[in-house]
Design goal:
single chain, four-stranded parallel sheet, 2 helices
């Protein structure tokens, strides 16, 4: 990802999008994941569909999250474990959790 894309991602200021209810992100590579860590969606987000090597740390701040779909590393490429997930106790309204391996290179 170049500097231009990084600036655009940060300029989106997702944390200020208070009417945003669902978000879908696909991340390939650790460099992009570091940028995604900085976007911080609004805390009232209810749905997250995420494809990447691990979930961003800000997932634990999404107290209103009801649906989480995580497509993580496949068993063949990486040791997929619950360490990729936030503590479920920090997601008190979670109703649906879907975890699947995703076949792309990180």
């Amino acid at each position: 990802m170049g500097d231009t894309e990084e600036v655009e991602v940060k300029r989106a200021e997702l944390k200020n999008k208070i009417f945003l209810r669902a978000l879908k992100l696909e991340v390939e590579g650790d460099e992009l994941l570091e940028i995604i860590e900085d976007i911080h969606p609004p805390p009232n987000l209810e749905g997250l569909d995420f494809k990447g090597p691990r979930l961003p740390k800000w997932c634990t701040t999404l107290a209103q999250l009801r649906k989480l779909e995580f497509y993580g590393p496949s068993h063949r490429r990486c040791d997929f474990s619950c360490s990729c997930l936030p503590p479920l106790g920090k997601l008190p309204f979670l109703e649906e959790l879907e975890i699947r391996p995703h076949l792309f290179s990180f």
